[in-house]
Design goal:
330 residues, alpha/beta, Rossmann fold, Dihydrodipicolinate Reductase, domain 2, six-stranded parallel sheet, 14 strands, 25% strand, globular
């Protein structure tokens, strides 16, 4: 039985907590940690986890083998370094940090420690996404000719009125690094991104916020074929993101996790996913199945003494793509 401490119990906490409950035969929550008892009381009431405001004591507890970091992005480097220094394995929420430089320092700390460092990009574990990855790896769609990603999401102004939301110092950016990062990581995993050719970033009149709520980019895929990325949180009322891949033997569409493939030979393949996407005002309205599978992989990696399926270096490459989109922005 592995022991884990959860640091941070804000909006991203519920799917992780439910995943740990599902995996209670393998892992035990030793502590849930937050700065105030007011934040911790609902956690104790709903999940029955032991709670504390003493981070140092939780990290020093020998019953804790691993730490789940769910705090704001600008705290990740310090939190991860403290956990690694205490000899704990770490699973860190996206993004790694607010800048590429701090993200690089975080990944380097993980490698130096000899502990396992995983990153929460759970979209890679959704069945439809995994199936498309398999088809692309096998060459079932032939040579990829083009691909695009659209993330037409919605967040009301009240979302950005909460302290720190969409603020560069805390989040590192807007729609790219906070919302669309999951889909950008998935897109990069599927078809590769070799370069960003041009991009546009805007803060629309829909929101009052410091960072961008709209971004578009022209890119080169891993094989040099053309691609596009469009992401926004200003598209009321919000709809599921879509990835389209065009190959010489057929085309595939991922929409909110549901996969549809049409082969030129005349056959089709579909895989429906009703897990939800959190594309609208209810941004946590999605199933936790993928989080549970990611957590299972993290536990397996510790037990098998191997890298997680999404190690720090993978997350770092996705963050570098986002930084390149920002730097090319006009």
């Amino acid at each position: 039985m592995m022991g884990i401490a959860i640091i941070g119990v804000a909006n991203g906490f519920p799917p992780h907590a439910r995943s740990l409950v599902d995996l209670k035969d393998r892992v035990r929550v030793v502590w849930a940690v937050a700065r105030t008892t007011a934040r911790l009381q609902p956690v104790a009431d709903e999940f029955g986890f032991p709670v504390t405001t003493d981070l140092a004591a939780a990290l020093a507890d020998p019953a804790v083998d691993a730490v789940l970091v769910l705090t704001p992005a600008n705290t990740h480097l310090d939190m991860v370094e403290a956990a690694l220094a205490a000899g704990k394995h770490v699973l860190c929420e996206k993004p790694l940090e607010v800048t590429v430089a701090r993200a690089e320092a975080l990944v380097a700390a993980g490698r130096r420690s000899g502990r396992r460092l995983g990153v929460v990009f759970q979209q890679r574990f959704r069945p439809g996404n995994m199936r498309l990855k398999q088809l692309l790896t096998e060459g079932a769609l032939g040579e990829i000719q083009a691909a695009w990603l659209t993330v037409p999401w919605w967040r009301p102004q009240s979302y950005y009125d909460e302290p720190g939301r969409g603020v560069l110092a805390r989040d590192g950016g807007g729609v790219l690094i906070t919302q669309a990062i999951h889909q950008i990581d998935l897109f990069r995993w599927l078809v590769g991104i070799s370069s960003v050719e041009a991009s546009q970033l805007r803060t629309t009149k829909v929101h009052r916020m410091e960072t961008e709520d709209y971004a578009s980019a022209l890119i080169r895929l891993g094989n040099g074929a053309p691609g596009t990325i469009v992401a926004t949180t200003a598209a009321y009322p919000g709809s599921a993101g879509e990835i389209k891949v065009i190959g010489t033997r057929g085309s595939a569409t991922l929409e909110g996790g549901s996969l549809s493939v049409s082969f030129m030979a005349g056959t089709k393949e579909t895989l429906e996913d009703k897990g939800g996407s959190g594309s609208g005002v209810l941004h946590m309205a999605f199933a936790h199945d993928a989080h549970r599978d990611l957590m299972r992989d993290f536990l397996d990696a510790i037990e098998q003494d191997r890298d997680t399926s999404i190690p720090g270096e993978e997350a770092l490459e996705t963050q570098r793509v986002i930084q390149s989109i920002i730097e090319k922005g006009v």
